[in-house]
């Protein structure tokens, strides 16, 4: 057993973990941050995306000990301090970018990273960036529209 210390959503935290413990396990089971979902356990679906030092990371593919000394942001950490939705979260709501909601945290976290890297992506760039995220419900159309809307680009009404 070892102790891992990191900053999660602006708060310093520590947890005792085994070397094989995944970051997603510490977030969900140790810290109660269940917005980070486990969808496949194989790093294929993207439901577990968090930001580590601002970069998107699949938390099911990162050992907790690798997060030592780093800053981790989960879906719970991107809303405003007053609980107001982030622009991406608001756009997902407004443009019906979710159905069952299972993939939504990972999609939102991926979108946040994309818009930080490329503030005005094209539809093709959005679709390409989301390649590592699987949604079994929406067909991606409204997710893409939501991300474009969050970037300040005009999109047609939700379908």
Automatic annotation (TrEMBL):
Keywords: 2Fe-2S, Iron, Iron-sulfur, Metal-binding, Oxidoreductase. SUPFAM superfamilies: 2Fe-2S ferredoxin-like, CO dehydrogenase ISP C-domain like. CDD domains: fer2. Transmembrane segments: none annotated. Residues 2-78 form the 2Fe-2S ferredoxin-type domain. One of its GO terms (molecular function) is oxidoreductase activity. It holds the Pfam family Fer2. This is (2Fe-2S)-binding protein.
């Amino acid at each position: 057993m070892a102790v891992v210390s990191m900053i999660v959503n602006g708060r310093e935290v520590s947890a005792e973990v085994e070397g094989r413990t995944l970051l997603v396990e510490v977030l969900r089971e140790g810290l109660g941050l269940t917005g980070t979902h486990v969808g496949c356990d194989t790093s294929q679906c993207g439901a577990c995306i968090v930001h580590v030092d601002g970069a998107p990371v699949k938390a099911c593919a990162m050992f907790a000990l690798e997060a030592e000394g780093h800053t981790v942001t989960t879906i719970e950490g991107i809303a405003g301090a007053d609980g107001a939705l982030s622009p991406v979260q608001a756009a997902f709501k407004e443009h019906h970018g979710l159905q069952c909601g299972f993939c939504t945290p990972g999609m939102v976290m991926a979108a946040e990273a994309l818009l930080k890297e490329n503030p005005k992506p094209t539809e093709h760039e959005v679709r390409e960036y989301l390649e590592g995220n699987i949604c079994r419900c929406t067909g991606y159309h409204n997710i893409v529209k939501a991300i474009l809307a969050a970037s300040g680009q005009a999109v047609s009404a939700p379908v």
